[in-house]
Each structure stands twice: as C-alpha cells, then as structure tokens.
Amino acid sequence: MSEAELHLIRSRLTAGLKHKAARGELRQGLPVGLDYDEDDKVHITADEAVREAIATVFRRFDELGSARQVLISMREDHLKLPRRRNGSKQVTWAEATYPAIHDFLSNPACAGAFVFGRTRTENRVDPATGQVVVHNRLVPREEWEVLIPDHHPGFISWEKYEVNAAKLRANRRHPREQAGGAVREGRALLQGLLRCGWCGRIMQTGYSGAKGNCPRYVCARAKQLYAGEKVCQSIGGIRLEKTILSELFAVLQAAAPTATAQALNEADARHQENLAVFQLAVERARFEAERALRQFNNVGPENRLVARTLEKTLEDKLAGVRAAEADLTAQKARRPVALTEEELAWINSAGADVRAVFEAPTTTLRERKQLIRSVIAEIGITIHAQRRIAELKIVWQGGASTDISRVMNKPGGRVQVTDEDTISLARRLAEHYNDRSIAMILAKQKRRTATGLSWTRARIATVRATYGIPAYQQPPKDDVSPGCDDALVATITEAEKILGVSKVTLYRWMKDGFIHGEQITPGAPWRIRIDQALRDKVKPEVPEGWLSLEETAKALGVARQTVVAQGPTRRARCRPRQPRTTQRAPYPGRTRSAWTVRHTLIGDMRSANQPWTGPEKRRSPSPR
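^ thats the sequence. predicted structure below, dont judge the formating
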C-alpha cells in the first residue's frame, strides 16, 4: 500500500506539473540572457554586453550559415560568450565553443517560445550488470508536449528560429543514403544541391585529374547499399557548373541594381552593429579592471599573501583591456569606404557585376557556394546515356523552376578545347605557312591554348592532327623563280629574290600604294602577287645611251650610293647650266636597277680635278 501511495502521489504531482506547463506558467531553467522578474515573467537580461554577444551569434549565423563558421569567426575576433551555471545568477565569460553556440541557435527559449517535453526519459536494464540505466533523449518537434510561441521576449522571432533550425539540420552529415551538408572548402560548387533524377538521392561529390581539382558528381548509393550492378549516373562538374552559373547570373542580372543599392544602404548599419559588441567588450573589460584595482587598493600593503594574488588578477584584467581595445581598433579599420554621390548614383543605376564579384580572387569557395545556395534550392538531373543528353531542373528559392537540356561530351572528349575561331584561323593559315610561322602569328595576336599556354610549333602540330588539318606543303622552287612568266603569290622574302629589290623597298612601295600586298590575318607575313606587269614596272628596259646604276658604279669605281647621292652635285660643279643627266625610273622608290646614267657623264666624272669623294662632312641625302 505504501508503494502504491507513492506511485499515486508521483502521478498527481506529474499531472499538476504538466497542467501548469500547458498554461506556460511552469518555472524552468533559462539560458543565459533571459531572467525571471518578481512576477515570474521572463524578460531579456539588462546586461548590454550579454545581449549584444548573443545577438552577434545570430547575426553571424545569418551571414555564414554554419555554426562551426560562427565559432571560427568569433575565435578569430577574440570574442567571448556569457556563461551561467544551472541555478546560479552569476554570469561568467569564456571563449566561444561549438556547444555554446549551438545551444543559442537551437534553444526555443531564445526565440521567445515556451517548450515542455523536449526530452524523454527511458529506463532499460543493462543485460551485463542487471542494473536499471536511465537515458534521456531528444524527441522530434512533433512529439513536444507543450509549445507556446511568443510566450516572452526573445532575441529572434519564432519564424527565424525555424529557418535556423532547418539550416542546422541541412548542415548535419547525413546518413549514407543521402549526401549534402554544410558548404565546405572543396572545388565542387554544386556540392549537396544535385539530386539524381532516377533514384531521388542527393548525388555525391568526387574529384579526379592529375591534381585532383576536377569535380565529378556521382549517384552510387544504390550500388554501395544494395549491391547494384552499376551507379545510377555520373557527370563531370566543370561544364555542368558553367551551365548552372550562366543561368544563375542571367537571373541575378535584373536584380543587380536593387541588390547593390540595398547593400550600400546597409553596409554602414551592419558595420555599426558589428562594432557594438566590441565596444561593449571594452567597456566590460574596463569595469572588471577597475573593480580589480579597487580590491587591490583596499588590501593592506603588509598583507603580501593577498596582495600578490590581487596584483596578478589586476595585471590580467589590464591585459584584457588592452586586447579588447586592440580588437576594437581593428574592427574600426574595417569600416566600408565612403563613396561619392556620383559613384553612388552610377552604382545604383548600373548595379554590381555579379559575375565579376563571384569570380574575384578575394571571393572564397565557401562564399561562392553560399551565393549559389541563397538563390538555388535544388538541382534535379537526369542523364540519358544513349542520347548523350542531360536534363536539368533548377529549383529556385521560392519554388520557381527552370528546365534546361544540354548535350554531354562524347566518350573520350576533352573538357578544355581550343575555341572555334582559333581552329578556323589555323586551318586557313596552314594552307600558306608552316607550323612555326602559324605559332608566331597566333602569338602576335595574343591567342592562347585552351589551358592558357602560348602556342608553339609542337602545339600547332597537335591541333592539326586532332582536327585533321593538312600540313603546309612547300611549293617547288620553279614556281617562285625569277624567270617564271606566270602570276604567282610570293612572300616578302620570295619577292625580294624574284624582283631583285630589298625588303625595305617592298614595304615602302606597299605603303605608297605602288604595289599591293595582302595579309590573311593581322600579324601574318605580307604576300605579294607578282605578274608580268609588275615585273615590267619594277625592271624596265634601259634606254639606249644609258647605263644602269650598277654598271655606272663599276665604271667609276665607287659605291652605288655615292653615284645616287653625289652624281647630280658633281655634275653641277662641272657644268652648272647642263640639265640633269641622271634620271629616275617612272615609279616611286629608289633601287639598284632604278637609276640610269648617260655614257657622256662618266667621262666628265673621271676627268674632274677633284677626286670623287663627295662633299666634306655631309651625309648622303635620304632615299626619299
């Protein structure tokens, strides 16, 4: 009867406790930051430092999306979190830890809700010892006995708490039949977002390549768990990610001006919010240092047993003040740069370049994945191996979706291929130039291979072999001989031999329009069409009674340039009124075969008293 009465008493007490909890009047242990007043009402603590430290946890979780990342950021900024033992009113400060941050994020009381029955006690008998083992376990939200949202003031709303809880559940390492989790440091940008269209599981991420930097997405859970014969599907990540990002940037382009304006307006406010926790940390450190100083001053100087301890405590508090002030100074230096009114007007109208921000070297892989996840909820993919087609369904945040179909690479195909423009240009150049010349032309145009390397003869040969481009065939020597009467197209070097003139003269003639040259592409060697008409213009027949320039120089025993430069001057000295007896060919330019001299002038030159040395200290006139 006594045992039965104890059981009945316990049942009545439990029923009364549950009845009081159902009304939200049961007094429970509260997390640090919440206190009871005299009327047993829950309110937020009056300590500003405690309030701001807890609010910082929630702000950084909104920004970073992971409890572990919040922990890392608070450790880097040397921010401490408030602690309080069960049943105690004293608040202490300690380094941030993962359990402390997770408790703030997962405790419904911080969201202003009253909850009863989150845990359940289970008793079982240990088969080894025969003793009763009591085990407390968390139960799902659907099994909570009492849930009263908006029961008291909280740091966040109940809707925000549910969003945070969903993020925490998504960040967990899922069982083996699923994948996903929080964003990580890996190269795969779509990690945790791809869902197999055949079995419905989240696809796994792997890496391949010589350096292990080529992501690949595989659905292999059925093979691993149920001994399937093969994986559901597998696809490379580089081209897939480019397709998804192109669609993502196209969607974000329209919202870029609005988002940029909002970010600029909120930049300074966010900075001030971030700065508040550091300012309060400095104020708290100074208060503790002043209290330690008062305690040290109140002790008698002769009581060294106590004075030494208080002195050490004071030194630690003063070091804490210096550290807090240094952290505050560092945070003030991170203030956003103030833009001028013109810059603000331009940015508000044009918007930020989302792609440039995404691909900037300062943007980490984590931040890129967070940007993708903030817009895309999930991507379904179904690969049709026979048709080599991948059907994609992008599910955006909010429920809208976009269907995309893209052709997959052929087996053995390359991911990085040379662009079609370069291949087409190489095909045209191969008809006229060898591999070395083609490489030089592409280098002048600053073209690169698919992997970003410069072009060489060997790489040109590889491209030709890959795309079936025939090699350049050197024409027979008879085709470019000076005696050939048929029209031909020759390079500058070949034209120099055929026409008997220098390269400089040929380039000058092309510039003056006397002859016409052609280039297949900018940077390619010039080519000249040589026919009989051009030969007649360049090398006319020497009139009767005249000598060529070369014959004249040989007869006089001087250089050809001397005859060209000083012939008229010397003749003027001999016969001032005699008309000019050297003449130029009827075309612009001066060449070895372009000048002729009368036979009668040679005797005058030889019989002159003054030796043929030209004027003293005078340079020959320019050929032009």
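Residues 480-485, 568-596, 608-624 have pLDDT under 50 and may be disordered.
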